[in-house]
Structure formats: C-alpha cells, structure tokens
Amino acid sequence: MTGMTPRAQPGHQRDHRPRSRDEIGQVRVSPAPPPGAGSGPAGEDDAGRLREAARLRREHPGWVVLWLAHLRQFRAYPLVQARHGTALTAATSGDLAAQISHAEQAASRPPRGNPAPITRRDRPS
After folding, report:
1. What's the chain's Rg over C-alpha atoms?
2. Range of 62's domain?
3. SS3 annotation, 84-119
4. Is-contact 87 71, C-beta < 8 A?
5. Is residue 8's pLDDT more than 60?
6. Is the pTM of this model over 0.70?
7. Fewer CB within 10 Å of terminal CB in the chain, N or C?
8. What is the mean pLDDT of the chain?
C-alpha cells in the first residue's frame, strides 16, 4: 500500500502510553480520591495523613504541603523566593516539619562569605 504512513497501515497498533509534557504541551492530572476514600486501614491512614498535611500548612503558611498517597510521602514547596525546584520530602509529618524549620532558619541567615551591608552609622567619618 503506497502513500500510507506507518500509523495508517492495517495491523498497526497505536501507542497508548502517557506522553510527556513536551509531547502534548500540557500535563494531565488525575483527581485525588476524597479524604477517607478507600477501604480498610489504608484509606483511614491516608485520611489521617491528609489531616497532618493540613495541620502543617496551617503551622507553616509559607509552604505548600501535600500528602502524596501513591508515594507514601509528604512533600513541601516554599511559597517564598527559593532556588528553582526546591522541594522537601519526608515519610512522616514530623520529619517534614523539622526540614521546613531547618530551611526557614537557613533562609533567615545571611549567606556565608558575604558581610552584612555597611549602614550609615558604620561608615567611617
């Protein structure tokens, strides 16, 4: 059969794998199940983890805090100016809270090797 592309040829199966952002120009996101969805301890556990993530968001308003059920991890992204791609990940809410506190303390300190700017009173006369 001349003039047919490989996809148009009989018997060719189409590739149904998910495509990357570059291939389709957008990201497809599946909706998360509602809190408490699922059966048994796993669903109850996820509901508790979602409540813990909400508590961390209230305690640290400068951060987006998520429970990633499919990875069984908490993740936090800063809302303040930070290095591109900054994300904190932990298996427990306590570990994530400690990481957030450490990151906030580090951000409040001046960088090493850069002295504080000279103020008007510090300048020699």
Report:
1. 24
2. 39-111
3. CCCCEEECCHHHHHHHHHHHHHHHHCCCCCCCCCCC
4. no
5. no
6. no
7. C
8. 74
